[in-house]
Amino acid sequence: MIRLLALGSYFYQSLVAILLILLLSHQLEAAHYTTYSLTMAVSQFATVVAFEWIQLAGQRFLASSGGDDTKRLQCSLFLALALSAAALAAIAALAAASGLVPLSLIGLGFVVTIMQGTTDLHYMMIRVSGKLSWASILLICRATFLLAGAATGAGLYGTTEAALLGIFVGHGLGLVLGSIVDRTFLNWSPRIATRADLSAFARYGMLASGASVVHLSVPILIRFLVVGRFGIASSASAGFSMAIDLLQRPFSVLLSAIHTISYPDVVARFDNDTRKAAQTAAAGLFDLAVCSTALMLGGLVAFIPDAARFFVPPALIASFLAVTPTVALFYFLHTHLQATLALVPHLEKAALRLIIIAAGQLALVSIFVLASTAASLGPTAAIALAGLATALVIACSIGPTVRFGAYPRPMLAFSSVLGATIIAASVALPSEPVSWLLAKIAAAALITIAIGWVGDLLKH
Prior knowledge:
Blueprint: H1 2-27, H2 30-62, H3 68-98, H4 103-128, H5 132-157, H6 160-181, H7 184-187, H8 195-230, H9 235-272, H10 275-311, H11 317-340, H12 343-347, H13 351-374, H14 379-397, H15 399-404, H16 410-425, H17 434-455
Helix pairs in contact: 1-5, 1-9, 2-3, 2-4, 2-6, 2-8, 2-9, 3-4, 3-8, 4-5, 4-6, 5-6, 8-9, 8-13, 9-10, 9-11, 10-11, 10-16, 10-17, 11-14, 13-14, 16-17
């Protein structure tokens, strides 16, 4: 039941993120929405640069700790957070001094980044400590706060700054609520932190987060190249940005949920149990990750056109629908390269290998997308070539996982791909009258439930 709640909390976050994007696309003009989208993309990038290494180190080290060691590690993590925030503040000050970006956007982007990094770290500590149900509830509440804050700000003032201020307020309320549930953040003391912990975090976490930074820069690069070609105020750029925003969240959120549920157990077995036990735990994670995301890919291809008729502004529908299937496929491949295939290197603390793989993806995607720009191809072709480049990197980087000996069950993976294909093919069926749409949704749900039930996916 707790695992269902955890999965539900991440699905809820994904749904709220989609609703927020749809709301803002109606409340903000195209130029304001594109500016908001770019600012949030840069903020997410900054969050990864400044704080991802702390998150990764915390998950890896806290999962198998206990007693006084846990308290010391938590205090060291918060000290690392404060040091990273100070470094980020210096970078923001330099950006403000350059005068290239409005000061209001820099300031709001900075405080949003700090607040998100702090809240994410606190929530991670709560769930790793065994309070998975409380962590799930907190994620649901924070997502609701973010939706309400950003939509209220954009609705009242119709500006990028107002929407960003609403995001800041949402994170702040989430941090306050988390501190009521668990007082770790309020009670931490830098005196308990140790240099040895910070050094261990840096050796592992910074290399691992460097790979995340490089991976995250891939869709940002694609976004800037496409927007730069078509112009920030064009409907093509706005529709493409909307597709990137919408379809990034479902895959990343689902895989985050799966790792939240299964990763601590995999780490504990790898550190404290036999190799066979670690292989079994990792295989269970792979089962759930590959099969659930494949079915999600099929559902997105099938039902995004129906949702677009109701929620996407008419001026953006054509450019939005033109890229959604290829954007969905790209993110399916991208998130598995970043998360699923990185599991074994994380277990082995082989963070340098992760950076090499990420750098290879960035280089190959850059070459392919720049070639599409030189050939005057559209956004659909650019993102398709980015997906092809990512698939080639996956084929070249699967070796450590194969040698570790943990794989999804072949028949379950085949059934999931087949089910996803059937669901995706339903896009060709009519969705009017409404009874047809409901029948398509029911059929997709039955296929998903049947595969999950036969595969007993939630047992892991």
